[in-house]
């Protein structure tokens, strides 16, 4: 099964991110991420065997993460895959620490590959025809988080559908 570890925004923030996705979609085209799929990926694991998924579920359920805040104040994009996202102007040290801590354990379990660079972001669009963000409205959102989720991604003809398999204590 295809898994990743993520922070999921609270409903009010998710709604606001959905509004930003609408703005981006109107200007850039592409495929808008559904509101229920908006998240911050901390570790993409890819295909994981059932036994390892069970081990991960127990690990995440027993985990406690330090509550934190993340300021989203920047539009960004990855031109080649046509991704439009929102994130922070500066790397958030608490998020970087959490991501590093997760990868330390995941690597010891032989799961996934730690990315060479961590750019915390929430993907709003995929396959955008244009990634020109020069005249987008300014944003300043604060995301308070205290829980990590292990999420399964299932892809079918309608796109990706996510299911939370486990959540840390929050």
Unreliable residue stretches: none
The share of residues in extended strands comes to: 25-35%
Rounded mean pLDDT score: 94
Multimeric state of these chains?
A: single chain
Q: How far apart lie the N and C ends?
A: 25 Å
Give a count of the beta strands, DSSP E runs of length 2 or more: 10
What is the CA-based Rg, rounded? 16 Å
Which outline best applies? globular
**Helical residue percent?**
25-40%
Number of helices: 3
Q: Can you summarize the main beta sheet?
A: 4 strands, antiparallel
Strand neighbour order, sheet with most strands: 3-1-9-10
- Specify the structural class: alpha+beta
The secondary-structure element order is EHEEHEEEHEEEE
Question: What is this entry, summarized?
Answer:
This protein is of the alpha+beta class and 170 residues long. It has 3 helices and 10 strands.
Task: Write up this protein.
This protein starts with a strand and ends with a strand. The chain has 170 residues and is of the alpha+beta class. The longest helix is centred in the N-terminal third of the chain and has 18 residues, at 11-28. It has helices at residues 11-28, 50-61, 93-108, and strands at 2-7, 31-32, 40-47, 68-72, 74-78, 83-87, 121-126, 141-145, 149-156, 159-167. Strand 9 and strand 10 form a beta hairpin. It has a 4-stranded antiparallel beta sheet. It has a 4-stranded antiparallel beta sheet with strand order 2-7-6-5, with helices on one face. It has a two-stranded antiparallel ribbon with strand order 4-8.
């Amino acid at each position: 099964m295809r898994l990743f570890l993520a922070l999921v925004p609270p409903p009010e923030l998710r709604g606001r991110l959905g509004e930003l996705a609408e703005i981006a979609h109107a200007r850039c085209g592409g495929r808008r991420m559904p509101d229920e799929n908006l998240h911050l990926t901390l570790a993409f694991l890819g295909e994981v065997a059932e036994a390892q998924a069970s081990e991960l579920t127990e690990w995440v359920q027993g985990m406690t993460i330090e509550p934190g805040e993340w300021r989203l104040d920047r539009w960004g994009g990855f031109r080649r895959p046509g991704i439009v996202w929102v994130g922070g102007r500066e790397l958030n040290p608490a998020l970087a620490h959490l991501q590093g801590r997760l990868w330390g354990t995941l690597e010891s379990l032989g799961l996934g590959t730690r990315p060479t660079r961590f750019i915390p972001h929430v993907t709003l669009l995929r396959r955008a025809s244009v990634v020109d963000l020069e005249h987008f409205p300014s944003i300043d959102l604060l995301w308070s988080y205290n829980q990590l989720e292990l999420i399964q991604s299932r892809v079918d003809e309608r796109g990706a559908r996510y299911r939370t398999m486990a959540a840390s204590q929050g």
